Amino acid sequence: MTLITHNDNCPKCASKEIELRSFSDDIEFRGFILDVENLQDLHCKSCGHSWEEKTQVQHNQEMLKIRYAAIRDKERTKQGLLGAAEIENIRNLFDLSQRDAASLFGGGYNAFNKYESGEVLQSFAMDRLLRITRAFGINAIEFLKDVNQNTQFNVTKVNAKFSKIPNYNISKATDQLILTSRMQANESSARYVNDFFPPAFLIDSKKSNSRRISKHES
Question: How far apart are CA 36 and CA 53, in angstroms?
Fold first, then answer.
């Protein structure tokens, strides 16, 4: 426990002998028991009263969110999904705000806020769409913008655009991804990947082990 002199008065006995304490505690949050470190409260040395003011409440909520996000990232790792930091890095790579990314990739208005905070795990379809975008760069972003504008596609033209990408990038993407025809119903951009991305970098469905994509939103 860390004791730091604080200038406020105790709301119970008006004493000025107040300490800002730093401690750890087990907190139940969204079905998990989290061991959260670096929590803070105020403690009166005179009467023993403890309380939190706005500053401590905000600090403790942030510590709880950080710990929760770490636990959720462990679950992502088990399932082979991108971590919160990786999702944020992909978004920043293309200078997209969280709302811009949600509009472009799908998943809902606050999807990327929830993905990056750990509140929601991205689906397998969304995860693969993000990996494709990271591998193929701005061409993928432009493609998805066209998709979201309901553009009629010229397959030859689209294939020509992606043919400019080095083969090692194509191999890198296909080595990481197995796309199936089962996509999340609420993720239109992810479904379009299966329908419209050039077959040059999609794994032959006959060679891939197709499996059911289960919903991971919680």
Answer: 19
